[in-house]
Amino acid sequence: QVQLVESGGGVVQAGGSLRLSCAASGRIYSYNTMGWFRQAPGKQRELVATITSGTTNTADSVKGRFTISRDNAKNTVYLQMNSLKPEDTAVYYCNVQVWEIVYWGQGTQVTVSS
What is the mean pLDDT of residues 59-64? Predict the structure, then answer.
């Protein structure tokens, strides 16, 4: 069983920065893909970024502004968000895939004011 706990969300003005963290409990390895997704009101959940054994994949909508990273010793994945825009407002979720099971965190709210 894996549990994920996100932190770091909040309210920030447009152009500002936030750093999200997601700590995983349980046995996680660097080859287990960890990722960040987000869901805005009335919209479907969408991929933000993933990381697997150091290889990252970032959505075009946030490329150049958001950076995903990982500390395998701490079982923690981070999302550094810079140059935030109002359209980045959403609940941000982290997940990890262990074999065929995908575990999700509870989500953390990010609100960007204009």
Answer: 98
